[in-house]
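lol forgot to send this yesterday, sorry. C-alpha coordinates for the thing we talked abt
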Protein backbone atom coordinates (compact mmCIF):
# COMPACT_ATOMS: atom_id res chain seq x y z
CA UNK A 1 0.00 0.00 0.00
CA UNK A 2 1.28 3.47 -0.90
CA UNK A 3 0.26 7.03 -0.06
CA UNK A 4 1.80 10.36 -1.04
CA UNK A 5 1.02 13.43 1.06
CA UNK A 6 2.10 16.96 0.29
CA UNK A 7 2.39 19.73 2.92
CA UNK A 8 3.46 23.33 2.21
CA UNK A 9 5.79 25.49 4.21
CA UNK A 10 4.72 28.78 5.75
CA UNK A 11 6.06 32.31 6.15
CA UNK A 12 5.94 34.34 9.33
CA UNK A 13 3.64 37.25 10.00
CA UNK A 14 4.22 37.24 13.79
CA UNK A 15 6.96 35.15 15.40
CA UNK A 16 5.42 33.66 18.57
CA UNK A 17 8.62 33.32 20.59
CA UNK A 18 8.38 36.75 22.24
CA UNK A 19 4.75 36.54 23.37
CA UNK A 20 3.37 33.05 22.76
CA UNK A 21 1.00 34.42 20.10
CA UNK A 22 1.81 34.04 16.41
CA UNK A 23 0.64 34.33 12.83
CA UNK A 24 1.73 32.72 9.57
CA UNK A 25 0.52 31.92 6.06
CA UNK A 26 1.03 29.02 3.69
CA UNK A 27 3.47 29.29 0.79
CA UNK A 28 3.87 27.26 -2.39
CA UNK A 29 7.14 25.54 -1.45
CA UNK A 30 6.47 22.12 0.05
CA UNK A 31 7.51 18.71 1.28
CA UNK A 32 6.10 15.50 -0.18
CA UNK A 33 6.10 12.28 1.81
CA UNK A 34 5.93 8.96 -0.01
CA UNK A 35 4.75 6.29 2.45
CA UNK A 36 4.66 2.55 1.77
CA UNK A 37 3.62 -0.29 4.06
CA UNK A 38 6.23 -2.97 4.78
CA UNK A 39 6.35 -6.20 6.75
CA UNK A 40 8.07 -4.67 9.78
CA UNK A 41 10.00 -1.66 11.20
CA UNK A 42 9.94 2.08 10.51
CA UNK A 43 12.48 3.31 7.96
CA UNK A 44 13.00 6.95 7.00
CA UNK A 45 14.98 8.84 4.39
CA UNK A 46 14.94 12.25 2.71
CA UNK A 47 16.39 13.92 -0.35
CA UNK A 48 18.43 16.51 1.56
CA UNK A 49 20.46 14.18 3.76
CA UNK A 50 18.97 15.61 6.95
CA UNK A 51 18.78 13.77 10.26
CA UNK A 52 15.74 11.49 10.33
CA UNK A 53 15.03 11.66 14.09
CA UNK A 54 11.96 13.88 13.63
CA UNK A 55 10.61 11.67 10.85
CA UNK A 56 10.95 8.58 13.04
CA UNK A 57 9.33 10.32 16.04
CA UNK A 58 6.34 11.34 13.93
CA UNK A 59 5.78 7.80 12.65
CA UNK A 60 6.35 6.28 16.10
CA UNK A 61 3.69 8.52 17.66
CA UNK A 62 1.14 7.37 15.09
CA UNK A 63 2.04 3.72 15.67
CA UNK A 64 1.66 4.24 19.43
CA UNK A 65 -1.69 5.99 18.97
CA UNK A 66 -3.05 2.93 17.17
CA UNK A 67 -1.16 0.49 19.43
CA UNK A 68 0.61 -1.00 16.42
CA UNK A 69 3.84 -2.95 17.01
CA UNK A 70 6.41 -2.26 14.30
CA UNK A 71 7.70 -5.81 14.71
CA UNK A 72 4.46 -6.95 13.09
CA UNK A 73 3.87 -4.12 10.61
CA UNK A 74 6.14 -1.49 9.15
CA UNK A 75 6.30 1.62 7.03
CA UNK A 76 8.86 3.14 4.71
CA UNK A 77 8.87 6.94 4.60
CA UNK A 78 10.69 9.06 2.04
CA UNK A 79 10.43 12.83 1.74
CA UNK A 80 11.43 15.19 -1.03
CA UNK A 81 11.40 18.94 -0.67
CA UNK A 82 11.27 22.21 -2.58
CA UNK A 83 11.35 23.90 0.83
CA UNK A 84 14.78 25.08 2.10
CA UNK A 85 15.73 23.49 5.42
CA UNK A 86 16.51 25.51 8.58
CA UNK A 87 15.48 28.76 6.92
CA UNK A 88 12.47 29.97 8.90
CA UNK A 89 9.95 28.61 6.37
CA UNK A 90 8.47 25.84 8.56
CA UNK A 91 10.23 22.89 6.96
CA UNK A 92 9.93 20.92 10.23
CA UNK A 93 6.19 21.59 10.47
CA UNK A 94 5.62 20.68 6.83
CA UNK A 95 7.60 17.46 7.17
CA UNK A 96 5.88 16.47 10.42
CA UNK A 97 2.40 17.17 9.05
CA UNK A 98 3.02 15.15 5.90
CA UNK A 99 4.55 12.19 7.74
CA UNK A 100 1.87 11.98 10.46
CA UNK A 101 -0.94 12.23 7.90
CA UNK A 102 0.60 9.67 5.54
CA UNK A 103 1.34 7.20 8.35
CA UNK A 104 -2.18 7.58 9.73
CA UNK A 105 -3.75 6.95 6.33
CA UNK A 106 -1.64 3.83 5.75
CA UNK A 107 -2.39 2.31 9.17
CA UNK A 108 -6.08 3.23 9.11
CA UNK A 109 -6.57 1.60 5.71
CA UNK A 110 -4.47 -1.46 6.54
CA UNK A 111 -6.26 -2.22 9.81
CA UNK A 112 -9.71 -0.76 9.00
CA UNK A 113 -9.34 2.00 11.62
CA UNK A 114 -10.38 5.64 11.72
CA UNK A 115 -7.74 8.04 10.33
CA UNK A 116 -6.57 10.84 12.58
CA UNK A 117 -8.58 14.04 12.16
CA UNK A 118 -6.94 17.31 11.12
CA UNK A 119 -6.18 18.71 14.57
CA UNK A 120 -5.06 15.31 15.87
CA UNK A 121 -2.52 15.26 13.04
CA UNK A 122 -1.35 18.81 13.76
CA UNK A 123 -1.03 18.24 17.51
CA UNK A 124 0.80 14.94 17.09
CA UNK A 125 3.19 16.61 14.62
CA UNK A 126 3.80 19.47 17.09
CA UNK A 127 4.45 17.03 19.95
CA UNK A 128 7.03 15.25 17.81
CA UNK A 129 8.71 18.56 16.86
CA UNK A 130 8.89 19.62 20.51
CA UNK A 131 10.36 16.26 21.49
CA UNK A 132 12.94 16.53 18.70
CA UNK A 133 13.88 20.06 19.85
CA UNK A 134 13.30 21.69 16.45
CA UNK A 135 10.79 24.26 17.78
CA UNK A 136 10.68 26.58 20.77
CA UNK A 137 6.98 27.45 21.05
CA UNK A 138 5.52 24.33 19.46
CA UNK A 139 4.84 26.39 16.34
CA UNK A 140 1.06 25.97 16.33
CA UNK A 141 0.96 28.96 13.96
CA UNK A 142 3.47 27.45 11.52
CA UNK A 143 2.00 23.96 11.79
CA UNK A 144 -1.57 25.08 11.12
CA UNK A 145 -0.64 27.48 8.29
CA UNK A 146 1.19 24.53 6.73
CA UNK A 147 -1.62 22.05 7.33
CA UNK A 148 -4.65 24.18 6.46
CA UNK A 149 -3.05 26.72 4.10
CA UNK A 150 -4.16 30.34 4.10
CA UNK A 151 -3.45 32.64 7.04
CA UNK A 152 -3.73 31.88 10.74
CA UNK A 153 -3.46 33.97 13.90
CA UNK A 154 -2.97 31.76 16.92
CA UNK A 155 -2.54 31.35 20.65
CA UNK A 156 0.41 28.97 20.56
CA UNK A 157 0.45 28.21 24.29
CA UNK A 158 -3.11 26.89 24.23
CA UNK A 159 -3.00 25.72 20.60
CA UNK A 160 -6.07 27.73 19.67
CA UNK A 161 -7.08 29.73 16.59
CA UNK A 162 -7.84 33.43 16.82
CA UNK A 163 -8.22 33.79 13.03
CA UNK A 164 -8.10 31.17 10.29
CA UNK A 165 -9.00 32.26 6.78
CA UNK A 166 -8.01 32.29 3.14
CA UNK A 167 -5.04 34.54 2.31
CA UNK A 168 -5.17 37.00 -0.57
CA UNK A 169 -3.46 35.53 -3.62
CA UNK A 170 -0.08 37.19 -4.08
CA UNK A 171 3.31 36.32 -5.47
CA UNK A 172 5.94 35.67 -2.81
CA UNK A 173 9.68 36.18 -3.13
CA UNK A 174 12.02 34.42 -0.71
CA UNK A 175 15.60 35.60 -0.27
CA UNK A 176 17.82 32.74 0.91
CA UNK A 177 21.31 33.69 2.11
CA UNK A 178 24.14 31.17 1.98
CA UNK A 179 23.74 30.05 5.60
CA UNK A 180 21.15 28.45 7.85
CA UNK A 181 19.61 29.30 11.22
CA UNK A 182 17.98 26.58 13.34
CA UNK A 183 15.12 27.96 15.43
CA UNK A 184 15.90 25.57 18.28
CA UNK A 185 19.30 27.25 18.69
CA UNK A 186 17.96 30.82 19.03
CA UNK A 187 18.36 33.03 22.14
CA UNK A 188 14.87 32.97 23.66
CA UNK A 189 15.57 35.49 26.42
CA UNK A 190 16.87 38.02 23.93
CA UNK A 191 13.76 37.65 21.78
CA UNK A 192 11.42 37.98 24.77
CA UNK A 193 12.80 41.49 25.34
CA UNK A 194 10.75 42.39 22.27
CA UNK A 195 7.43 41.35 23.79
CA UNK A 196 5.82 44.83 24.15
CA UNK A 197 6.69 45.79 20.56
CA UNK A 198 5.77 42.43 19.08
CA UNK A 199 2.43 42.76 20.89
CA UNK A 200 1.81 45.90 18.80
CA UNK A 201 2.51 43.95 15.62
CA UNK A 202 0.29 41.11 16.84
CA UNK A 203 -2.60 43.53 17.39
CA UNK A 204 -2.23 44.51 13.72
CA UNK A 205 -2.51 40.85 12.73
CA UNK A 206 -5.62 40.45 14.90
CA UNK A 207 -7.10 43.40 12.97
CA UNK A 208 -6.18 41.59 9.73
CA UNK A 209 -3.50 44.16 8.87
CA UNK A 210 -1.25 41.26 7.93
CA UNK A 211 1.16 43.15 5.69
CA UNK A 212 1.94 45.84 8.27
CA UNK A 213 2.30 43.18 10.95
CA UNK A 214 4.70 41.10 8.85
CA UNK A 215 6.96 44.06 8.11
CA UNK A 216 7.07 45.33 11.72
CA UNK A 217 7.64 41.84 13.15
CA UNK A 218 10.42 41.20 10.63
CA UNK A 219 12.23 44.42 11.46
CA UNK A 220 12.01 43.76 15.21
CA UNK A 221 13.34 40.22 15.03
CA UNK A 222 16.02 41.14 12.49
CA UNK A 223 17.42 43.71 14.91
CA UNK A 224 17.33 41.31 17.83
CA UNK A 225 18.80 38.30 16.04
CA UNK A 226 21.46 40.23 14.14
CA UNK A 227 20.08 39.93 10.61
CA UNK A 228 20.42 42.76 8.10
CA UNK A 229 17.07 44.58 8.07
CA UNK A 230 18.07 46.51 4.94
CA UNK A 231 17.21 43.34 3.00
CA UNK A 232 13.54 43.94 3.85
CA UNK A 233 13.80 47.70 3.43
CA UNK A 234 15.32 47.30 -0.03
CA UNK A 235 12.38 45.11 -1.03
CA UNK A 236 9.89 47.68 0.26
CA UNK A 237 11.72 50.44 -1.58
CA UNK A 238 11.48 48.39 -4.79
CA UNK A 239 7.71 48.08 -4.47
CA UNK A 240 7.04 45.09 -2.18
CA UNK A 241 3.74 45.24 -0.28
CA UNK A 242 5.43 43.76 2.81
CA UNK A 243 8.79 42.24 3.65
CA UNK A 244 10.51 40.81 6.68
CA UNK A 245 12.49 38.04 8.33
CA UNK A 246 10.63 34.71 8.43
CA UNK A 247 10.79 32.75 11.67
CA UNK A 248 14.19 33.13 13.27
CA UNK A 249 15.82 33.38 9.84
CA UNK A 250 17.73 33.06 7.76
CA UNK A 251 15.23 33.72 4.98
CA UNK A 252 13.45 36.98 4.20
CA UNK A 253 10.09 37.03 2.44
CA UNK A 254 8.50 39.74 0.34
CA UNK A 255 4.86 39.89 -0.69
CA UNK A 256 4.69 41.45 -4.13
CA UNK A 257 2.32 42.40 -6.92
CA UNK A 258 3.21 40.84 -10.25
CA UNK A 259 4.34 44.18 -11.69
CA UNK A 260 6.99 44.63 -8.98
CA UNK A 261 8.54 41.14 -8.99
CA UNK A 262 11.50 42.05 -11.18
CA UNK A 263 12.25 45.25 -9.26
CA UNK A 264 12.28 43.45 -5.91
CA UNK A 265 14.45 40.66 -7.30
CA UNK A 266 16.88 43.26 -8.63
CA UNK A 267 17.01 44.98 -5.23
CA UNK A 268 18.30 41.71 -3.75
CA UNK A 269 20.91 41.07 -6.44
CA UNK A 270 23.67 42.62 -4.33
CA UNK A 271 23.22 40.07 -1.54
CA UNK A 272 24.91 36.67 -1.62
CA UNK A 273 22.42 33.86 -1.89
CA UNK A 274 19.47 33.15 -4.13
CA UNK A 275 15.88 34.27 -4.62
CA UNK A 276 12.99 31.83 -4.92
CA UNK A 277 9.71 32.84 -6.51
CA UNK A 278 6.52 31.20 -5.21
CA UNK A 279 3.00 32.17 -4.18
CA UNK A 280 0.52 32.07 -1.32
CA UNK A 281 -0.78 28.56 -0.64
CA UNK A 282 -4.42 28.24 0.39
CA UNK A 283 -4.69 24.46 -0.10
CA UNK A 284 -2.60 23.10 2.74
CA UNK A 285 -1.72 19.49 3.47
CA UNK A 286 -3.34 17.04 1.07
CA UNK A 287 -3.22 13.53 -0.32
CA UNK A 288 -1.79 13.43 -3.85
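and heres what i got for the seq, position by position
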Amino acid sequence: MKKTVRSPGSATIINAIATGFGSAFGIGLDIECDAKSTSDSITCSNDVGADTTLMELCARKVFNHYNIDDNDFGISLKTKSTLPMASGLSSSSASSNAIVKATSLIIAEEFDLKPLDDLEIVNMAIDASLEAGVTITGSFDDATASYFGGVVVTDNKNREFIIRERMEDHSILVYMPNYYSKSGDSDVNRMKLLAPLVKEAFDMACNKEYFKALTLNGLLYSATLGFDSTIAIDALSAGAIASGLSGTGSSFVAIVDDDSIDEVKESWDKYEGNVIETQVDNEGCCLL
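The chain has a mean pLDDT of 95. anyway ping me if u want another try
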